[in-house]
Amino acid sequence: MYKEKSNLKSFQVFATFGLIPLLVFGIVVLIPFFSGLFLSLTNWNGSLDSKIEFIGIGNYISAVRDPAFWGSLGKTFYYVFFVMILTNTSAFLFGLLVTSGMKGQNFYRAGYFTPNLIGGVILGYIWQFIFSRVFVYFGTKTGIPFFEISWLTQPHAALWALIIVGVWQNAGYMMLIYIAGFVGIDKSLIEAARMGPAPFRCFRK
User: Fold this and answer.
1) What is the mean pLDDT of residues 104-113?
2) Which GO terms describe its cellular component (predicted)?
């Protein structure tokens, strides 16, 4: 009797903390994923009145043959590469800065992490104002041609605008990971490495 109650209680705990998240994950992630995968193999305009025609990998073949696809793929790799490099570099430097014993380091930690908490819509409005208004005003007053035209109206500059926003938003989260690593290192080891013949080795060891 006691064993049955224990098993029932264990199942209730599992149902609360296991089944419900799995159910939400299935509804929010798995069902849309497999639905999208199926629809990618069909010719359908999205209207409920239209017929769904199965065409196999026809859509993928059309995409591969389209030069715009390869252009978009190249820009995506370009974006990912620079966001990854600049995010980790800035996060490493900020993490090193706020763990160096400087005054007000908790304030700076919160300030660097705040962009990660801002919603996408608000973030978009903020940076749209910066690129379309602030930069243009700055360029007009200083006479710098690069800033006189909104970055969002120039293809190459718009890509770098996205990179800047991506780095600005994600660097705070990565900074916390680096801080966790820096805090776990014995300070005496860092001091010994800095006083040695090759102080920069403390960043690699």
Assistant:
1) 72
2) plasma membrane
